[in-house]
Amino acid sequence: KIMRIIIILAMLMGVTGSPNGTIRPQAASADTMAHPNCIPEAADKTEKVRKNVMATGELNPNHYPARRAAQVVQHYLNTRYGSPFRLIGVQKVHSANDVADSGRKYQLELSVKETISNTTENCSAELFFPRGVEQHSPKVQASCEALLKIDTKAQEEALYQEYKRNQSLVSAQNLPDSHGRIAPDMEPFWQLGILASSFIMLNESNENTLYNVAQVANITQLATEDDQLKFDCHTLLHDMVSQEIIHWKLLFTWSPPEGVKVLQMEKLPHRHEQEEPPNTN
Ligand SMILES: *[C@@H]1O[C@H](CO)[C@@H](O)[C@H](O)[C@H]1NC(C)=O
Ligand SMILES: *[C@@H]1O[C@H](CO)[C@@H](O)[C@H](O)[C@H]1NC(C)=O
Ligand SMILES: *[C@@H]1O[C@H](CO)[C@@H](O)[C@H](O)[C@H]1NC(C)=O
Ligand SMILES: *[C@@H]1O[C@H](CO)[C@@H](O)[C@H](O)[C@H]1NC(C)=O
Ligand SMILES: *[C@@H]1O[C@H](CO)[C@@H](O)[C@H](O)[C@H]1NC(C)=O
Ligand SMILES: *[C@@H]1O[C@H](CO)[C@@H](O)[C@H](O)[C@H]1NC(C)=O
């Protein structure tokens, strides 16, 4: 059931061609989406071969190391440019290079797509995975300024006013539901859940992860005294490499001028629907 949601979600995120009908993944995501179960093995083998053959150099943009790096850039772009009306997905990786350094540095040329306006833009990005015993989050630099030209101010202001003024607080579950459906008036909250999760996914990513939001299990608006909208949210993140579903609880605020700010995050213990993570080393 979760896999079904994940595949549907990929469609909603715009990595597939058709917004409604059969699953028809495109380009870079085709392999990852169509056969999620064969990833860990295939990906690891590819990577091991590559590591032995060449320490640095050009990567196949369709292979997992490039794909995983691109996914981190996607999370970064959503933390930076995302809004309840602006959600960014990587559409295609055009080229990828890795450069040996004190950690591992990737240089990517990619096209990203804003899913609501259906605009595509090319961007360059550089990301760096620090090496070390401690888990450090990757450092990303990317500039896709054209994404900011998609004007969502009026919609954001309208959403803000509607939910700031209303006496009753919004609450929603299962975005999307097991049929992949999201009520249109709940879509901005689904996107807010994804944006808040992007901060976690960015922070938690390393060279061996590929995170997506499987589902915003629930999101509840909380009363506030200040000028932010505040939400309690429970999201299910899917790591395509380990095939784990990871539950996180989040407390975050949003307002049009401030964007999403994560106040608290908590990784919840494993649940019954998960398998133990395979020992990847
Ligand atoms: C999807 O949309 C196409 C037209 O864009 C339509 O022909 C098709 O029946 C739709 N499929 C579903 C499952 O709604
Ligand atoms: C999005 O834009 C592409 C290219 O301009 C077009 O082929 C596609 O049909 C559009 N999709 C939707 C859902 O409007
Ligand atoms: C993005 O770059 C690719 C490859 O360099 C090119 O084929 C494509 O036309 C570019 N797209 C845009 C929107 O500039
Ligand atoms: C206030 O919230 C209620 C319940 O969610 C909803 O039915 C109503 O349309 C909202 N009113 C406004 C002005 O948004
Ligand atoms: C990122 O993770 C570190 C620990 O790995 C934690 O201390 C920090 O608060 C996290 N920050 C964000 C924004 O997720
Ligand atoms: C939110 O969803 C999670 C996962 O399905 C569930 O365990 C939790 O009880 C839900 N919380 C609320 C407040 O609905």
UniProtKB/TrEMBL annotation:
<comment type="similarity">
    <text>Belongs to the protease inhibitor I47 (latexin) family.</text>
</comment>
<keyword id="KW-0732">Signal</keyword>
<dbReference type="GO" id="GO:0008191">
    <property type="term" value="F:metalloendopeptidase inhibitor activity"/>
</dbReference>
<dbReference type="Pfam" id="PF06907">
    <property type="entry name" value="LXN"/>
</dbReference>
<dbReference type="InterPro" id="IPR046350">
    <property type="entry name" value="Cystatin_sf"/>
</dbReference>
<keyword id="KW-0677">Repeat</keyword>
<protein>
    <submittedName>
        <fullName>Latexin</fullName>
    </submittedName>
</protein>
<dbReference type="InterPro" id="IPR009684">
    <property type="entry name" value="Latexin"/>
</dbReference>
<dbReference type="GO" id="GO:0005615">
    <property type="term" value="C:extracellular space"/>
</dbReference>
<feature type="signal peptide">
    <location>
        <begin position="1"/>
        <end position="17"/>
    </location>
</feature>
<feature type="domain" description="Cystatin LXN-type">
    <location>
        <begin position="55"/>
        <end position="155"/>
    </location>
</feature>
<keyword id="KW-0646">Protease inhibitor</keyword>
<feature type="domain" description="Cystatin LXN-type">
    <location>
        <begin position="171"/>
        <end position="276"/>
    </location>
</feature>
<dbReference type="InterPro" id="IPR049897">
    <property type="entry name" value="CYSTATIN_LXN"/>
</dbReference>
